[in-house]
Structure formats: structure tokens, C-alpha cells
Amino acid sequence: MKETLLHVEGMSCPSCIRHIDSALRGIQGVEKVDVKLREGTVLVTHDPSSAPTTALIDALRDAGYSSRPRAA
């Protein structure tokens, strides 16, 4: 398992947290999602062989959010 910290743009309310959580948990290989609204980040614990970082970013884009990896 790998932890990936993503900076997410466009999060503004608790509904965004649920939307992002749902989008990422829908990816096979994602084990844990921790959304931090104030920091504008999401920490994802995932299996990089079945859920690479690009898949996480794509899922967030499809959900309406732009994101990019961020140093922990």
C-alpha cells in the first residue's frame, strides 16, 4: 500500500468531502480516503498497481475537481 497526498482545488463544503470520498472509494485498490477541507488536501491509501496516482487524479477530475500530487 502507498499513501498519496493530493492537493484538490474547488473544495468548499462538507458536501465536497462526501463527493470526493465517494469518487475515490469507487476505485478498486483504494483502501482509505482522508479529506481535509481546510488544507485542501486528500490523503489516499491505495495499491499503486491497481489504483495508480493517475487514476486518482482522473477520478477527481471526473467528479469536477482539479488535483495534483503534493509533498507530504
User: Would you report the number of β strands?
Assistant: 4
Strand order of the largest sheet: 2-3-1-4
Distance between the termini: 16 Å
Binned, the helix content reads 25-40%
Low-confidence parts lasting 5 or more residues at pLDDT below 50? Answer: none
Q: Over all CA atoms, what is the radius of gyration?
A: 11 Å
CATH topology: Alpha-Beta Plaits
CATH class: Alpha Beta
| Element-level helix/strand string | EHEEHE
Largest beta sheet, briefly? 4 strands, antiparallel
Mean pLDDT: 94
Describe this structure in words.
The chain is α+β, with helices and mostly antiparallel strands. The chain has one domain (2-69): Alpha-Beta Plaits. The protein is 31% helix and 35% strand. It contains two helices and four strands. It has helices at residues 14-25, 53-62, and strands at residues 2-9, 30-36, 41-46, 66-69. Strands 2-3-1-4 form a four-stranded antiparallel sheet, covered by helices on one side. The longest helix is centred in the N-terminal third of the chain and has 12 residues, at 14-25. The radius of gyration is 11 Å and the shape is globular. The mean pLDDT is 94.
